[in-house]
Amino acid sequence: MLKNMNVLALTRAIDIAYSDAEVQAQPELQALLGRAAQKLDRVEDYHLVAQDLRQSLAAFNQRPQTVVDLYTLLVADCPVIA
């Protein structure tokens, strides 16, 4: 099954952030990114995974630049669902 371009872009952004040394120093953030990547690998609904990740990342006060970049991607792609 060919993956959607949004899924590929999000997976790449998660991988970049996950590999960041500043992220690796924050086990909770690293685990969050790992869970999101696993959900995407299982072909779960992209929008639900992206929305959940966006909301979860918003709770982190200090985000490394790679996570800020990931969050920016999510904001542009996933409007807030009330």
From TrEMBL:
Pfam families: EntA_Immun. InterPro entries: LciA_Immunity-like, Ta0600-like_sf. GO terms for biological process: bacteriocin immunity. Keywords: Bacteriocin immunity. This is Bacteriocin immunity protein. It comes from Lactiplantibacillus fabifermentans DSM 21115.
